[in-house]
Design brief:
The complex is a heterodimer of chains A (307) and B (393). Chain A is built from 9 helices and 8 strands. Chain A is an alpha+beta fold and 307 residues long. Chain B is an alpha/beta fold and 393 residues long. Chain B folds into 3 domains: 115 residues, no CATH class; 110 residues, no CATH class; 65 residues, Arc Repressor Mutant, subunit A (Orthogonal Bundle), CATH 1.10.10.10. Classes of the chains: A alpha+beta (307), B alpha/beta (393).
Chain lengths: 307, 393
Amino acid sequence: MAQAQAQDADTRQQIADAVESAARAASDAAKVASNAVKTQNEEATKILNDFAEIDFVEIAMVLVAAWVIVAASKRVLPFIAERGPSQIRLYFLGSVPIVRLVVLVVATLWIIPIVFNITFQNFLVIAGAASVAIGFAFKDFVSSIIAGIVAVFERPYRPGDWVEIDGDYGEVRSVGLRAITVCTPDDDVITVPHEHLWKKNIANSNDGTHTLMCVADFYLAPDHDPGRIRAVLRTVALTSAYLSYDKPVIVVLAETPWGTHYKLKAYPYDMRDQFVFISDLTVRGKAALREAGGREVTATAAHGFDA
Amino acid sequence: MSDDAFDPRPLQPLDDYAPPALPTEETLRRLVSRMRESVSRSEEEPFIEPDRLRTAGDEMLDTLVPPPACGPLMRELDRALEDWAADPRLWRRLVVLPPCERNDLIKGWAGRYGHAIVHPPLRSDLVAADGPVNSPLDGLDPAGKGVLVFPRLEDWFLRHRNGLAQVSHLLDWLARIERPYLVGCDAWAWAFLCKAVDTHMVLPKPLTPQAFDAMMLRDWFRELAAEDGTLDRVFRLTSTGQDVFALDADGNLESDYLVTLAARSRGIPWVAWHLWRRSLRSGLDEEGEDVGDKEGRIKGEDTLWIAQVEDASLPDTIDRTPLLILHALLVHGPLDHEELEAVLPVVGRLAALPAMVEAGFLRLEDGRYSCLASGYPVIRTALSSAGMPMGVL
């Protein structure tokens, strides 16, 4: 009996020791964890790396390499595009903004860890500060840049495309980070911010293809044979030296208060010929209409009718 | 000569035409060579300096590479047309010929076999504003017997606002008649007519001769240069000294020259014939001495040399006028100055014509301009690079 009581006392003592030991270990662990959190917080609040740790040579090399690649792509790719076969022209021109975007993203992702101490907390701090700055000072600029990035993927326009934005029609010469440059038929160069992507309609006449529809308009007095006129105008387009064989030729007409409006629609084999193509259709179309008994009405007559 | 080289081959569907390809190795070699040349001048010494050799004169060329430029093709055409003789239904045919054909192959054949040739309208009658006038079809019997041959469909139109009436009238007429006929057409004119007047609907399934590959060219050129059936001359490249006709143990050509020539000419015999003639050089220098013998490199053989001839460049202009001229001439065949002005949208004078004749792209003969067959590879490449509509061959 006494032996059994002694055994119980030992067991209780062992349990008490074990509990005490566990409590001590838990207390130590809590202290370590507390220290770790404190250290982490100190590190997290440090946004920039130590000045001595930043490798400025590496940053400079990345920046120079990125600049060289972007500058070279802006010169070499259009150079090849203008001298190579016309079939590959648009591919080379269209690759310029993509190359630039890829290079800038790679360079940025390369440099950021060198300069900044990247943690989630820091990210929130930087994002908050940047949001305030952007919201007040650089809203339009950043909006254009983001629209430019969207434009690379959505492709409402590419270098070499013929577009109409806010009433300006011309060929997209370059797609920059903030804006595109458009060269009009009168050789004016217009800079259009990407921001227009959010608010304006963008009409792309060729949408990345090598040709676009050209329309020559003719207005005739109603006393004529429309079947013959349609056939004559169709032949005018089919015998143009600029005609693309792969696309259709269409003649449509509509009656208007001042006469019959004919639209001769056809595609040139190279969209850069669109204006000489329309001129060719117009010149030869006028001669063909006269021979076919058509009588063109003038703007003066139209205005008079309207009045 | 291989035994069956000149067995006349049947005409084939136009869509099956496969121009010989440049060997991959040759393509890469040309690319590398061009890049190297653009960086620095090649230091490789040619086997024989081509500048020391005389250009072969017309008399020599007419002995070594005599006309016509289409020899084996005439036999192929004869064979095909003989086959058709057995079945009159087969005569409702269109044969599309490669561009720059100046031997009147189909007209010559029709003349030899006594078939009725329908001559095209006068050029002045092609652009009459009131529809087809003085049509050559007016006196023909659509239900008559005998084959009607229209040798050159390209002579029935002008790419002018009034210039399609005669060819449209002809196609309508052919669609209605039951009489057998044969129509010949240039490959570039065919492409245009398919677009302009739907020729492929009236004349479906056109046929065309098969492409000439390197072995065909070898056998043909050997046959032309042989006297009494034996060839006792050797044709060597100035660059390497290789015999261009020599075969290796497997029966393949040792040199790539003829493979390249076949590819450059796109299998068109008269283009290859002209390029071959242009590259030939006499083995004698200006003093009349044999250059190979003099240098001790070639002994005891009658050698003709084949030099690398640089391609000419199109006149340097800021507009497309030269390309438009070349395209118009490929579509129509020979045209005079007034006809060219009628089919081209050029404002002002056609000032580029003399320069293009001088550069070796055009020939001016009897007041009419036409594309030279020897310039066709460069012309085709230039037109293709400009994105212009291409001929089917």
